[in-house]
Amino acid sequence: MLRQCCVGFGNLALLGLLSSLDRAAAASPAHPLAAHPPMFRPRAKRVIFLFMHGGPSHVDTFDYKPALIRDHGKPLPFEKPRIQFAKTSNLRKSPWEFRPRGQCGAMVSDLFPLVGARADDLCIIKSIHGTNEAHGGALLKLHTGSDSLVRPSMGSWISYGLGSENQNLPSFLTINPTFGHGGVGNWSSAFLPAVHQGTPIGGGDVPVEKAAINYLHDPNENTAQQRAQLDLLGAMNREHLAGAGPDPALEARIESFELAFRMQTEAPEAMDVNSESAATKKLYGLDEAHTASFARQCLLARRFSERGVRFVQVTHPYWDQHENLTKDHARHAAEVDRPIAGLLADLQGRGLLDETLVIWGGEFGRTPTLQGKDGRDHHPHAFTMWMAGGGVKEGSSYGVTDDYGCYCVDEKVHIHDLHATILALLGLDHERLTYRHAGRDFRLTDVSGRVVREIFA
What we know:
35% helix, Alkaline Phosphatase, subunit A, alpha/beta, two-stranded antiparallel ribbon
């Protein structure tokens, strides 16, 4: 049988080799961001990641726990996690009511009435779990797959695997990113070619309405002069490469200069939300002071996504309520509820939701037990994220936590599983999307990860 099938086995090996060569050619310095085909039929073309920095409480938002109401004030009836970020006391019920939403009847708290009204679009995953109780490690784990080592971010891997649909824009943008808790490591390309690193828009203390892409314009030069300078610089750099041999850092820098030049023609128009209709601005919440900032981020995410940017992340700080949870979680939710619901409605109305994977969540959840007088502590052992569009089951729920939302008990989804699933929705095999570095092949999911196909439509 093996003798008769030997040609077949050889053909399989040849196809695999050609596939690798095609991918390497598509990512070559000549066109490192050129769009190239996925490994198999994708369900989504792009990602919008709505990152809630600080860790929103799953038991106060999307993971309804009647036992918390029943046993409010009592001790947790089993062992708390072996490692805890800080001390907590007894069980604490949610300050908010949960109600069935949409035709699917998903239980969503009153923190998110407008997102809850779109529950039939959501696939709520309630059994996410990670490994790190601290913000820095948890952010890096969620963004890069490692909480302690320098690794490429999820957006960089997706850029490397698929390229960009628009050669005049980066393939990976991060809007209002945090510069703490891992900082640029959360959108770094690490050892991948530098062209796949996330391009930040704003961040830190810069108001979102004033956020811009740094160094997009040179006020002292006109376009012809810039082009002449780049051509001269490019010729000198290529002459150096010819004599010195391959230099990935220099090759990436050459491409970054070229991309920056091309971005001048398209990025300013994409950043101009004033061209949107009054109805669209109202849909997102640009007309209200408390929603305007995050509304602008979500609207920019839609504008860049529809222009071919492969991965767009928007960040909302800061859901870390060790105290004042009732007041501050309510304030944060009010700032993002309308913009997120508007984004989903807008994508759907433009026919983009089916091919855009929208992801919502933070780096961990919060304890079902009370911290201080009105807070909850960090909790990576069980928390909730949801997805919409992009080929996931609408109006569905996956994963089960215990009666108090403390531990995952069924259909568990580790961070590596989450990454493997996101890549699979984009048509990428997480075990084959690798990069050779320091003598071995690396991947986003390290040496583990299961695709959660049960959530696929």
